[in-house]
């Protein structure tokens, strides 16, 4: 189960909409071991692509060091799908490498109109498990 | 003196949970070979068919080694090597 504030969900959706039709990506850091996402860190999609995303390696180094210094970890790793549903693709699964992270997908595909779809998964050793998202009102 | 290698969460099963380990060598390739001698299995997670795996980022101090010289990048005592899983994916 992922417990996350409405404010952070809104920020992910806003980022996904801003970068649409390219995929948007980022992390939400939280205190190590807390399983609580707190600090929103939008990342650049180095691929600038509607079908692929990759964190810029230098930006990632900077952000991961910052988390290390603050005793944080990437609680949420999010990205958007801009024309498909919010479900991990084969590429998403093959790259997933933070066993403690919640992989959040935001879909901004056209059929949804004003609504965005936000779903969360654990991806461990190639196995995807969808989990409940509990949104805490601000 | 040695070279400090920072290990990401997903690879700490090879280092008994250690966040950082020391290793030696004059190139990144030698360094990874030295790591393998004390942490068997680690090399295969970093290197495939003589090149760095695309699923990992390896940094020498503040630089991505892909922009330096890959596995042939020279390393020296006092350097820090950081390994991070690449974060990527997409709808296809």
UniProtKB/TrEMBL annotation, chain A:
The keyword Cell inner membrane does not apply. GO terms for biological process: proteolysis. GO terms for molecular function: metalloexopeptidase activity; zinc ion binding. SUPFAM superfamilies: JAB1/MPN domain. Keywords: Hydrolase, Metal-binding, Metalloprotease, Protease, Zinc. Residues 2-127 form the MPN domain. It comes from the Bacteria. PANTHER family: CYSO-CYSTEINE PEPTIDASE. This is Peptidase. It comes from Planobispora siamensis.
UniProtKB/TrEMBL annotation, chain B:
SUPFAM superfamilies: MoaD/ThiS. This is Molybdopterin synthase sulfur carrier subunit. Signal peptide: none annotated. Gene3D superfamilies: 3.10.20.30.
